[in-house]
Structures are given as C-alpha cells and as structure tokens.
Amino acid sequence: MLALSFPAAAFGTNCYVLAPGPGEECLVVDPGIGVEDTLRSLLEEHRLRPAAVLLTHGHLDHVYSVTPVCGGDTAAYIHTDDRYRLADPVASIDPGTLAMMEAQFGQRATWREPERVVEIEDRGRLELAGLSLEVLHAPGHTEGSAMFALDVVPDGLPAEEGLDRTVVSGDVLFAGSIGRTDLAGGSDAAMRRSLREVVLPLPDSTLVLTGHGPATTMRRERATNPYLRGLDA
C-alpha cells in the first residue's frame, strides 16, 4: 500500500492519501485547510485518481477542503452521527479563531456542502480504490468520530517493527495523547469507552496514522500513553 501524508496549512491536521500503488485510484482522508495545492501535486506526482474522500469526523480542520477535492463526482464518507456537521462547519468556529484563520489566508472562510455524502456505520466494510477498510466508530471527540482500519501496512516500513495492519485514528488517538473532549459534541465518558472498547483491543502490530502529529504504533501507545493506563479492554 502507498500511504502519503502532509500537514494542512492550519492546525497541523494530517491529510492522508492511501492507494494500492502509484498510478491507481486512491482515498483522500481528512482534507483540511489549505491542502488543495499540495494534494494536487502529490496526486500528479504519483499518478493517482481520488475515488473517495474519508472523513474521520466533522470538525472544520478535517473537512474544510472536502468539497473542492470531491468535485461533483467523488463521494465523501462520514459517520452518520457527524453527518449534520457537514451542513456548515464554519458556523461552529468561535469568532476569534475564524478571524485569525481569515487573516492568515487573506480571504473570508466559506463553505459549500459536498454534493455526494455517504453515511457510514460502525463495523461497516468499505471496498474503495482497491482497498478494504473497516469503520470503527469511536465517539468522544465528536459523536461520530470514526477510525478506519486496514489489514495492510504502507510499503517500506522496517521489518523489525512487525506491523501488519493500519488504523487511521483521526482525533481519537495521538502519539502520547488523545483528542480533546471539551468541544461541542464531545464526551469524556464516551471517549473513555471508545479507548477501552475500540482502541485497546487493537493488536500491538497496528500502525496508527494520527489526525495530528507523528504516526505511532499500538505497542508504543499501550506501553506509554497515559490515557490508556488503567483501562481494561
């Protein structure tokens, strides 16, 4: 599997491109703020064609560029419980943050909902762009936060890591941390449940591609992440 990533222009949100290999269809995950030019260059360099856009949740920093990336033909996939957020995620940003973002980019923030949206459910199986993914609903950061699990890892990983699967975790799990739960729709109790019932059962051999910051592994997080201590899978 080919896995490419780069940070968005704001909030350090990781945008991922997943494909069976160069010259194939691909999946774009979480196209955030200001990603369009970099994403276009990556797609051209590796001769990739977007088949779908996957959204780990509906916060603005993860979905802002979804409509221009999708165009009119490519569907955006999001969990049912976060579908409502695509109506206007700009409206949920506090005025101070919105003004700062507009000052940085020199233009007013606007939003247009994607033409094609597919609602996904927990444990659903997606067969897209030659890849097979399982949807893992993990609320807490938002009601519809979801992770995407694949039984394959990117090419070129060190063999000694012993990794055999990948999870795109969004803002559920970070290296050494987790997503915040104090925003609208967040829940500390739901997050603890998701960590205990969805995250901890993941095998140590899982590569975790996070929504912000560096990639990690379940082996590393199980041993070092303070938010996973004291939870029983």
Description:
Its cofactor is Zn(2+). Keywords: Hydrolase, Metal-binding, Zinc. The chain has 233 residues and is an alpha/beta fold. The protein has one domain: Metallo-beta-lactamase, Chain A. It contains 6 helices and 14 strands. Strands 1-2-3-4-5-6 form a 6-stranded mixed sheet. Strands 7-8-9-10-13-14 form a 6-stranded mixed sheet.
- Average pLDDT taken over every residue: 91
- Helix-strand makeup class: alpha/beta
Q: Which strands sit side by side, in order, in the main sheet? A: 1-2-3-4-5-6
CATH superfamily: Ribonuclease Z/Hydroxyacylglutathione hydrolase-like
CATH class: Alpha Beta
InterPro entries: MBL_Glyoxalase_II, Metallo-B-lactamas, RibonucZ/Hydroxyglut_hydro
Protein name: Glyoxylase-like metal-dependent hydrolase (Beta-lactamase superfamily II)
Organism: Phycicoccus duodecadis
GO molecular function: hydrolase activity; metal ion binding
Task: List descriptors.
233 residues; alpha/beta; Metallo-beta-lactamase, Chain A; 6-stranded mixed beta sheet; 6 helices; 21% helix; globular; RibonucZ/Hydroxyglut_hydro
Summarize this entry quickly.
With 233 residues, the protein is of the alpha/beta class. It contains 6 helices and 14 strands.
